[in-house]
Design brief:
This protein has about 350 residues and is an alpha+beta fold. It contains seven helices and 14 strands. The N terminus is likely disordered. Pfam families: PK_Tyr_Ser-Thr (PF07714).
């Protein structure tokens, strides 16, 4: 896009040069995750330990075009925002293969944290602190017109000291400006807002109207889970939970929640999306609850939200794959990487 080299471009892929990864400085280690469209490896970029996501090109011309377009969209969103509660985007490149590089996380998913804590629940001030991290990440995304659409404990990662939560896995994230004609892709029904799938059973490719308030509903389910450390819609399958929420207006019981938090949760999962609060309002309500139970604790600093950088790449194989967790020795993957000792990294050029 011009001789000043400010942007890297190939077909529909445009990236500011400061986010362009130089494959010569990229080294790949053991595979740590795999999804339908990509594999994630522990790796090193220059001197930094990172997570390297290698996106498959597809095995038919149609799939190749679709994946290239999806990759371009992912990277465009990744480079838009930064926040301390969003997984850090480091860079990307399209040649010789499509690659997205992010920070490597070590604290585990919120799902695993909660499971390890059961049958106990976390302290209420800790639960509210985690909820504030999540709400601030969502406020930042919404301020940039981005809807996550798949907010759930599996997509929330703890820092190594278990004091900070970061939002990841933007496989279903979309810009709100295009949701009026958005395909009916699905996240995880148990946490999804009913308007994403209710009224009419949508076939793949059909269109559905909704807005950013779908994330507010999901946040309510996550907050309920944070406080009580129980699976929402316990005893139901994901599809049964979706049917109960959409067609019977059923919600988890808020009886055992503190009164102010019960009010917050039930307002966030209201059937009418327009009556749900936004994340700025949610943050204020959470801060009031935190002040009530921990009046002497310092106020958590305000959000930091800038106009560039950071988010987990869409179509992620899952947050587990961003954590430094090994499943045996470095695993070969369809010729993409040689089996290696855990401590070794191989030049990226050997991975395609």
């Amino acid at each position: 896009m011009g001789s000043d080299n400010r942007f890297y471009s190939t077909d529909e892929f445009y990236l500011d040069a400061k986010w362009l990864i130089d494959p010569r400085h990229l080294f790949v280690g053991p595979k740590i995750g795999e999804g339908a469209h990509a594999k994630v490896y522990e790796g090193k970029y220059k001197t930094q330990i990172v997570a390297i996501k290698i996106v498959g090109k597809g095995d038919t011309p149609e799939r190749m075009v679709r994946r290239a377009a999806r990759f371009a969209r992912e990277v465009a969103m990744l480079s838009k925002v930064q926040h301390k509660n969003l997984v850090k985007f480091i860079g990307a490149c399209k040649e010789p293969v499509m690659v997205i590089v992010t920070e490597l996380l070590t604290g585990g998913t919120l799902r695993k944290y909660l499971l390890n804590l059961r049958p106990m629940s976390m302290k209420l001030n800790v639960a509210i602190g985690f909820a504030l991290d999540i709400a601030r990440a969502m406020e930042c995304l919404h301020s940039h017109g981005i809807i996550h659409r798949d907010l759930k404990p599996e997509n929330l990662i703890l820092s190594a000291d278990h004091k900070t939560v970061k939002l990841a896995d933007f496989g279903l994230a979309r810009e709100e400006s295009v949701t009026e004609m958005m395909t009916a892709e699905t996240g995880t029904y148990r946490w999804m807002a009913p308007e994403l799938y209710s009224t009419v059973t949508l076939k793949h490719g059909d269109k559905k109207h909704y807005n950013h308030k779908v994330d507010v509903y999901s946040f309510a389910i996550v907050l309920w889970e944070l406080i009580l450390n129980r699976l929402p819609f316990e005893g139901m399958s994901n599809l049964q939970a979706a049917y109960a929420a959409a067609f019977k207006n059923m919600r988890p019981s808020a009886e055992n929640l503190p009164e102010d938090l019960a009010l917050l949760v039930t307002s966030c999962w209201r059937e009418d999306p327009n009556t749900r609060p936004n994340f700025s309002q949610i943050i204020q309500m959470l801060l009031q609850s935190l002040a009530r139970i921990s009046p002497r604790e310092p106020v958590i600093p305000p959000r930091i939200c800038a106009s560039e950088n950071v988010m987990m790449p869409p179509e992620s194989p899952g947050t587990d794959s961003l954590m430094a967790v090994r499943h045996g020795s470095g695993e070969a993957s369809h010729g993409m990487i040689e089996e290696t000792p855990k401590s070794s990294f191989f030049c990226f050029n050997k991975c395609y």
